[in-house]
Each structure stands twice: as structure tokens, then as C-alpha cells.
Amino acid sequence: MALLPACQAEETRAREDLKEINLPSLRLAIQDLMKAFPERYPRGEEFLRELAECEKRLPQIERDLMGEDPAARKRALEEAETIAAFQREALIANPLVSGHPILFVARKQYKLGGHHAIDTLFHTGEINTDKFEGGSALKTIDFAKGGEARTLVELPEGVVRDPDVHLDGERIVMAIRRNIREDYHVWEINADGTGLRQLTCAEGVCDFDPIYLPDDHIAFSSTREPKYNQCSRDIAANLFRMEPDGANIHQIGKNNLFDNHADLLPDGRILYARWEYVDRNFGDAHGLWTVNPDGTNQAVYWGNNTASPAAVFSAHAIPGTQQVLCVFGMHHYRLWGAMAIIDRRLAIDGRPAVVRTWPSEAVNRVQAGGPRVDS
Questions:
Q1: In what helix (H) or strand (E) does residue 148 lie, and over which residues does it extend?
Q2: Per-residue confidence at 2, pLDDT binned at 50, 70, 90?
Q3: Helical packing angle, 70-92 and 23-36, nearest 10°
Q4: pTM of the full predicted structure?
Q5: Is the pLDDT of residue 171 over 90?
Q6: CATH fold label, 98-368
Q7: What is the pLDDT of residues 128-144, one digit of tens each?
Q8: Max CA separation in the chain (angstroms)
Q9: Three-state DSSP class for residue 109
Q10: Bridge partners, residue 239, by sequence
């Protein structure tokens, strides 16, 4: 029996739902959440009982979808959607997801304005300035309220990026570029969307990737010391810090390349990505480094002599551990790649320190020394 277009659409959607259903992994996730959050994940036992019923029904659902009985296929479509909805409900009940609103940026994909992954500033006066494209917003989504979204900052001609939430949860610092005619500056806003204020304002300078420090000062990357990266025509940035109101800006990282993606480690050090040439070849350029907030004790964290991945980006400390979550990417492409967890206690280079990657096969590309696997 030929399916009508509407039925075809429903079946396609159901099959997509089935692709996303992974009941063994869901069981592990529920059990882990019950152990990690015994009081904040109270429906764990209920979810496990429902999961057991889903495990019984799923094989028959898959058979019915492959069968010729229209009534059975219709029931299977409905049940597949029900199981997919249950899986989503059990995962969203994670208190780290639904316990508070999640802050995120909505923007267009950065254009390929050069040949390096960090070519995303489109600095005024830079060779790729015309690649800047506005249209961006800073938003929150609250899964405890059915996915309710709220806009805090909206820039029809500009881009907001790099938000960081204060330790008290009451303020957000970020970089804003209102249009192509100006550069990025550091701004701050209250978590409820009120009190938007500009903290830096130097012309012809990009201030970006700000983070709060334990003493309420703000560290950020900036192009305030004029220079170009060694093998390209994009303007370089180093680490700076300033007082909470933007006063007394001074440089805490001084090299001839590019420092970005700062994050705060539990011990108060700043973790950041550094484009480094010493003891490196031209392709595997970006490793993770640390520095004290006063600029002392610059040190390798992980990956300075790792040939693949060629770049490590957006590292964030995992609370309660000595591990960091980061992105494994390429130096000569976009600012994206596989997600990974690193434990530098195991090694400061290569695969031994890589605890996990998403997708899992990405770990097979990690190597220290030897020829580059990618660039």
C-alpha cells in the first residue's frame, strides 16, 4: 500500500526518532544521575520502570514499522514518538540541564575569512574585515519551563560572543561588536537582562574572550599591543586584565602570537589556548597553557608537542575534577571539531591524557610527535 505524503512525513519523523533512541545509554545516564544527584533527580526509579517497559516494546515497534499492516505501522509511529519524548524527559530532568536557565549565543556561522581557525575577529583594518556579518543575540533557555527562551541582548547588525557568568550568577560579561565599523569591546549585563554597560572602548582594538577572576577583576584577550601573527596577516592578541569597571588595563601575557579562550581553573590560574611557534611546526599550532592572574608562571598545560590534534580550543574546567573539556580541531580551518576530556595528570602530550572524545573514534587521531595527521 502506497503511503500518502503526510504519512511518509510521519514515518520519516518516526524513523529519525528511532535513530536518536538509545535505551542502553539512557539506562546508564539515569543510573549515573541517580547516584550523582540523589535528591535533585528524584524521579530516577520512575524513569527506570518506564525504561524497562520501553525496552520490551521497542523490538515490536521496529518490526511493525517494517511491516505491511497500516494500523500496526500507525501505532508504531505513535509509540516511537512516545519513547523519544520519554528519553528527552529523563535526560532534561538532569539538574545540570533543568536546574537553572542555560546561557547561549545565537549567531550566524563565522565566514571563512582567512585560513586559520582563529580568524573570527574580522578586525577593522584587517585583510578579512569585509567577512564580518552581523545578526546575533545573547539568550537564555529554561528547560524547567518547557524550553522557554529569553533574549538578553539583540544585535541586528552586530555580534555578541564569549559570555562568562559571574561566580555569584548575577552578572554576565561578554564581547560585543555592534556593527562592521567598530571592533569588539567588553560589556557587562545583569543576569536578568538589565543594566547593559560598556567596560572597554579603545578604537581600532578588539577586546574579547573575557572571564571573571576570583577578585572580581576581568581577564580578556586583546589586540592592544599591535602586531601580526608570524605566518599570516591577521592581527594578534594577548591576555590582559582590568578592574571590574574597566579601569587599570594591563597586559599579563606577552608574546608575538595569539592567546584566547581563557577559562578559570579551580586553583585560580587562567587556562587559555595559545598559538605557539617554539618547538612546533607550522601546522600543529595551538596548545593549552596556564598563567597566574598577575601574569607570572606562564606554563604549558597540555598539547604543546602533540602533532594531532593540530589545535585545542575552548577549554573549560570540569567542576569537582582536575579535568578539562575542550574541542580538538584543525589550525587551517574553522573553529570546530571533536569534543574531548583531558586529564593532564596522565600526560602533558598525546593520547594518554585524553580520557574521552565525542565522537569516540576521534581519539584514534591523537598523537604526539611524528608527522601531522591534519593541519
A1: strand 148-155
A2: very low
A3: 20
A4: 0.89
A5: yes
A6: Neuraminidase (2.120.10)
A7: 999 999 999 999 999 99
A8: 75
A9: coil
A10: 221
